[in-house]
Amino acid sequence: MCGIVGYTGGEACVPILLEGLEALAYRGYDSAGVAVFDGEKISLCKAQGQLSNLSVLLREQPLAGSCGIGHTRWATHGEPSYVNAHPHMDDAKQIALVHNGIIENYQNLKQMLIQKGCEFVSETDTEVVAQLIGSLYMGDCLSAVLAAMRLMEGSFALSILFYDEPRTIYCCCKDSPMVVGHSESASFVASDIPALLPYTRDVCFMEDKQIAVLRPDGVDYFNEFGLPIEKTLTHIDWDVEAAKKGNFEHFMMKEIFEEPVAFKKTLEQYVSVKELRLKTDIFPWSQEEAAALKKLSIVSCGTAYHAALLGKKFIERMAGLPVEVDIASEFRYGDAVLEPGDSLMVISQSGETADTIAALRMANGRGCRTVAICNVIGSTIAREAETVLFTYAGPEIAVAATKSYLTQLIVLYLTALDLAQKRGRMSAEAVASRILEMAAMPERMQRILDNRERIQYFASRAFSVKHVFFIGRGIDHALAMEAALKLKEISYIHSEAYAAGELKHGTIALIEEGSLVVALATQPELLKKMASNMEEVRVRGARVLAVTNGPADGVAANSHEQWELEPMEETLTPFCAILPMQLLAYYMAVQKGCSVDRPRNLAKSVTVE
Ligand code: G6P
Fold this sequence. Notes:
The protein is 36% helix and 22% strand. The strands form 5 sheets. It has an 8-stranded antiparallel sheet with strand order 3-2-4-1-10-9-11-15, with helices on one face. The protein has a 7-stranded antiparallel sheet with strand order 5-6-7-8-12-13-14, with helices on one face. A 5-stranded parallel sheet has the order 19-18-20-21-22, with helices on both faces. Helix 9 (302-319) runs parallel beside helix 13, helix 9 packs antiparallel against helix 17 (475-491) and helix 17 (475-491) packs parallel to helix 19. By secondary structure, it is an alpha/beta fold. The longest helix has 20 residues, at 403-422. The chain has 19 helices and 27 strands. The structure holds 6-O-phosphono-alpha-D-glucopyranose. 6-O-phosphono-alpha-D-glucopyranose (G6P) is lined by residues 301-304, 348-350, 353, 356, 399, 401, 602, 604-606.
């Protein structure tokens, strides 16, 4: 949500800002703008809609200067419009700033500033911040930023240009991500790493209420009391190309194609494939702790929540440990019973989802044992959880999560194996046989990708359908939740997931001639039950697509089309079954002409509530 970039160095800043904004576009936006300091004045250029609109304007009226800030805005306060787009300035035109987050007390601050004579042109909370800093500025930029930080409530990441300090950018944040990039002759700031990758991989992650002062020859950091602090640089080893589309039409397809490699990379971090054993020390619980565990809570949002639902199945089945799964926004305002010493796991690709961070902080505050599954080193969640199990998906740009989901499942599966072994529920040999099968998974996955035409052809006939129901039992039901989310978020086709056994309790009333039902039927012991459910919807006019674990009895007669996965141990089927579901969503969306990588109204990283 919203993207910030900033550059100060020896080169013209506009191309660098535009490239950075393009790299952050995946976060979702509806307008964009830049502010450039040309040595004499700060000039703004803003445009509603696509970034290309801003580029056109900047070509027509170029802004010269080697220090500037840029922003992609995802509207919260005030409609998407030119006036509400960032950057915003104070009345005196002394400062320009861009902002991510929500200032919760902006109405009070605005009233106070109006009484002082400030005039507002936009409806945004961001303009309030600009006027606030402007009104507090008495010739010392750092003091003005510090004083404003003390008055603002809510979340913010700010990059600020002061007219009186050329070639300098002030940055600060609270509950909103911000990363500073260091290089020999320039300094950078961005909301996320991909915007920095073409220029530097040496970065510093900003922490709450810290201030960074960026100049071409270096960055000074201060704490909330204005005292200088030292920060450590983190070297990011993501490939620059990993954040580019390459020869693919969409990031989503590229990322689906990266899944076999992401699988292998993640697996190899947690197991010795050669010795067919888990690297048990990496996992959070020792043998004694694992044996003493009474339950595990997992909290997350969106796709990561769906990964948690499957994690529950894996852990309960293999390790015999009860798992409670919650949506982070429900958990944080619910009545969670958390005792000191309880274990709570959060799952987050970005490590910056506001609700998930709140849940983690709540658990940390209550003395719980906290574990995070996270894809981004240095992110808030990675910093604040007691133990981090990283996923190795690399940067994920498409809003629809694909490879991050797969890698979250791998870590959850391996956690389940580790707990099962430590709790005496699985022998080393049984674990070894699962690892052996997992090691073969990337090749199986590749074969599904190589045979994608069948899925594409199916989508070309099915894309005009109005409703799709994904049904399954057990592990398949958890997977169906993610399959339905993928389809609805990028193709805008109404889709729902149901436990197949629950159909008769209501949902079957929705089945009519032409409804599409995708039946996930990969669990052998539940196959007969699934076949009956398919029959029930087929006779009511539904078109049934079945996904099975190898050839499956009774399915052909009750479905119109069957996609067989190569036979495998039943708990491992999600690793392969998710691919045709992601590809189906992708091809349906492409057929409908939807914006696959940037679906309407959605943001990749939900950093505000
Ligand atoms: C947004 C994204 C989803 C993601 C969810 C949680 O809704 O569009 O793809 O699953 O946030 O994000 P996280 O970064 O915490 O996994």
